[in-house]
Write a structure and sequence with these properties.
single chain; alpha+beta; six-stranded antiparallel sheet; 4 helices
Protein backbone atom coordinates (compact mmCIF):
# COMPACT_ATOMS: atom_id res chain seq x y z
CA UNK A 1 0.00 0.00 0.00
CA UNK A 2 2.77 2.36 -1.00
CA UNK A 3 2.43 6.13 -1.36
CA UNK A 4 -1.34 6.25 -1.96
CA UNK A 5 -3.35 8.14 0.62
CA UNK A 6 -6.94 7.66 -0.46
CA UNK A 7 -8.12 9.95 2.33
CA UNK A 8 -6.68 12.98 0.53
CA UNK A 9 -7.98 14.38 -2.77
CA UNK A 10 -6.10 13.19 -5.83
CA UNK A 11 -3.62 15.90 -6.86
CA UNK A 12 -4.17 17.33 -10.33
CA UNK A 13 -2.83 15.10 -13.08
CA UNK A 14 -1.94 17.24 -16.09
CA UNK A 15 0.39 15.16 -18.27
CA UNK A 16 0.63 11.69 -19.77
CA UNK A 17 3.73 11.15 -17.63
CA UNK A 18 1.69 12.16 -14.60
CA UNK A 19 -0.91 9.49 -15.40
CA UNK A 20 1.84 6.92 -16.00
CA UNK A 21 3.44 7.78 -12.64
CA UNK A 22 0.08 7.55 -10.87
CA UNK A 23 -0.65 4.17 -12.48
CA UNK A 24 2.77 2.92 -11.42
CA UNK A 25 2.00 3.94 -7.82
CA UNK A 26 -1.31 2.08 -8.01
CA UNK A 27 0.34 -1.04 -9.45
CA UNK A 28 2.99 -0.94 -6.72
CA UNK A 29 0.40 -0.40 -3.99
CA UNK A 30 -1.42 -3.52 -5.20
CA UNK A 31 1.78 -5.61 -5.29
CA UNK A 32 1.41 -6.04 -9.04
CA UNK A 33 3.73 -5.65 -12.03
CA UNK A 34 1.44 -4.54 -14.87
CA UNK A 35 -1.61 -2.36 -15.30
CA UNK A 36 -3.83 -0.25 -17.50
CA UNK A 37 -5.97 2.81 -17.00
CA UNK A 38 -8.67 3.51 -19.59
CA UNK A 39 -11.08 6.43 -19.86
CA UNK A 40 -14.59 5.86 -21.24
CA UNK A 41 -15.36 8.05 -24.24
CA UNK A 42 -19.15 8.33 -24.41
CA UNK A 43 -19.05 9.69 -27.98
CA UNK A 44 -17.21 6.69 -29.43
CA UNK A 45 -18.43 4.30 -26.70
CA UNK A 46 -14.87 3.01 -26.39
CA UNK A 47 -12.42 2.70 -23.51
CA UNK A 48 -9.41 4.82 -24.46
CA UNK A 49 -5.98 4.09 -22.98
CA UNK A 50 -4.71 6.79 -20.61
CA UNK A 51 -1.71 4.95 -19.14
CA UNK A 52 -0.17 1.49 -19.09
CA UNK A 53 2.74 -0.43 -17.67
CA UNK A 54 4.00 -3.78 -18.90
CA UNK A 55 1.92 -4.11 -22.07
CA UNK A 56 4.02 -5.48 -24.95
CA UNK A 57 4.45 -3.04 -27.86
CA UNK A 58 2.81 -5.50 -30.27
CA UNK A 59 -0.42 -5.33 -28.23
CA UNK A 60 -0.57 -1.54 -27.97
CA UNK A 61 -2.84 -1.12 -31.03
CA UNK A 62 -5.35 -3.51 -29.41
CA UNK A 63 -5.36 -1.86 -25.99
CA UNK A 64 -5.49 1.76 -27.23
CA UNK A 65 -9.27 1.51 -27.75
CA UNK A 66 -11.44 -1.24 -26.30
CA UNK A 67 -15.13 -1.75 -27.04
CA UNK A 68 -17.41 -2.14 -24.03
CA UNK A 69 -17.87 -5.87 -23.40
CA UNK A 70 -14.60 -6.95 -25.06
CA UNK A 71 -11.73 -8.33 -22.99
CA UNK A 72 -11.22 -7.99 -19.27
CA UNK A 73 -11.50 -4.17 -19.15
CA UNK A 74 -14.51 -4.16 -21.48
CA UNK A 75 -16.28 -6.81 -19.38
CA UNK A 76 -15.65 -4.83 -16.18
CA UNK A 77 -17.09 -1.72 -17.85
CA UNK A 78 -20.11 -3.52 -19.28
CA UNK A 79 -21.02 -5.35 -16.08
CA UNK A 80 -20.03 -2.52 -13.72
CA UNK A 81 -18.28 -5.16 -11.63
CA UNK A 82 -14.82 -6.51 -10.88
CA UNK A 83 -13.45 -9.08 -13.33
CA UNK A 84 -10.76 -11.41 -12.05
CA UNK A 85 -8.75 -14.12 -13.74
CA UNK A 86 -6.57 -16.24 -11.47
CA UNK A 87 -4.47 -17.42 -14.42
CA UNK A 88 -4.97 -15.59 -17.69
CA UNK A 89 -2.49 -17.96 -19.35
CA UNK A 90 -4.80 -20.96 -18.87
CA UNK A 91 -8.18 -19.19 -18.81
CA UNK A 92 -10.89 -20.74 -20.97
CA UNK A 93 -13.81 -18.55 -19.82
CA UNK A 94 -13.70 -16.45 -22.98
CA UNK A 95 -13.46 -13.17 -21.02
CA UNK A 96 -9.85 -12.52 -21.99
CA UNK A 97 -9.03 -11.99 -25.64
CA UNK A 98 -6.61 -14.57 -27.11
CA UNK A 99 -3.81 -12.02 -27.55
CA UNK A 100 -4.00 -11.16 -23.84
CA UNK A 101 -1.78 -14.18 -23.17
CA UNK A 102 1.08 -12.30 -24.87
CA UNK A 103 1.25 -10.02 -21.83
CA UNK A 104 2.68 -12.96 -19.85
CA UNK A 105 0.31 -11.90 -17.05
CA UNK A 106 -1.37 -14.64 -15.06
CA UNK A 107 -3.33 -13.11 -12.19
CA UNK A 108 -5.38 -10.12 -13.30
CA UNK A 109 -8.09 -7.89 -11.85
CA UNK A 110 -10.03 -5.08 -13.51
CA UNK A 111 -12.68 -2.79 -12.07
CA UNK A 112 -14.82 -0.10 -13.64
CA UNK A 113 -14.18 3.47 -12.59
CA UNK A 114 -17.59 4.83 -11.63
CA UNK A 115 -18.73 8.25 -10.51
CA UNK A 116 -22.01 7.25 -8.95
CA UNK A 117 -23.60 5.25 -11.76
CA UNK A 118 -21.63 7.02 -14.51
CA UNK A 119 -18.91 4.97 -16.19
CA UNK A 120 -15.67 6.97 -16.32
CA UNK A 121 -13.22 4.22 -17.29
CA UNK A 122 -11.50 1.07 -16.08
CA UNK A 123 -8.51 0.24 -13.93
CA UNK A 124 -6.71 -3.08 -14.30
CA UNK A 125 -3.70 -4.65 -12.60
CA UNK A 126 -1.87 -7.90 -13.13
CA UNK A 127 0.81 -10.22 -11.80
CA UNK A 128 3.12 -12.53 -13.70
CA UNK A 129 2.32 -15.40 -11.31
CA UNK A 130 -1.12 -16.99 -10.97
CA UNK A 131 -2.98 -15.15 -8.22
CA UNK A 132 -6.51 -15.11 -6.91
CA UNK A 133 -7.12 -11.62 -5.60
CA UNK A 134 -8.60 -11.59 -2.12
CA UNK A 135 -11.73 -9.74 -1.14
CA UNK A 136 -9.51 -7.17 0.59
CA UNK A 137 -7.35 -6.67 -2.54
CA UNK A 138 -10.45 -6.34 -4.71
CA UNK A 139 -11.97 -3.80 -2.33
CA UNK A 140 -8.67 -1.88 -2.37
CA UNK A 141 -8.79 -1.60 -6.17
CA UNK A 142 -12.46 -0.51 -5.97
CA UNK A 143 -11.48 2.19 -3.46
CA UNK A 144 -8.68 3.38 -5.74
CA UNK A 145 -11.08 3.48 -8.70
CA UNK A 146 -13.55 5.63 -6.73
CA UNK A 147 -10.67 7.93 -5.76
CA UNK A 148 -9.75 8.27 -9.46
CA UNK A 149 -13.27 8.82 -10.81
CA UNK A 150 -13.46 12.62 -11.04
CA UNK A 151 -9.98 12.92 -12.55
CA UNK A 152 -10.56 10.19 -15.13
CA UNK A 153 -13.99 11.56 -16.04
CA UNK A 154 -12.43 14.94 -16.81
CA UNK A 155 -9.32 13.56 -18.53
CA UNK A 156 -9.14 14.65 -22.13
CA UNK A 157 -12.06 17.05 -21.88
CA UNK A 158 -10.15 19.98 -20.49
CA UNK A 159 -12.62 20.14 -17.61
CA UNK A 160 -11.29 17.90 -14.88
CA UNK A 161 -8.46 17.38 -12.45
CA UNK A 162 -7.90 15.26 -9.45
CA UNK A 163 -9.12 18.02 -7.17
CA UNK A 164 -12.14 19.11 -9.16
CA UNK A 165 -10.67 22.48 -10.21
CA UNK A 166 -8.57 23.69 -13.12
CA UNK A 167 -7.97 21.83 -16.35
CA UNK A 168 -6.54 18.50 -17.39
CA UNK A 169 -6.31 18.60 -21.16
CA UNK A 170 -3.18 16.48 -21.49
CA UNK A 171 -4.89 13.11 -21.71
Amino acid sequence: MNDLDLTKPLPAVTTKDGWADLLEQIIDSMGCSTGTLHRFNPESELLTLVAQKGIPEELMPKVQSIPIGKGIAGAAAQNRSAVQLCNLQTDTSGVARPDAKKTQVSGSLAVPILDGEELCGTLGVGMHAPHEFTELETERLWNISRWLAAAVRGAGTGTGTGTGTGTDAAV
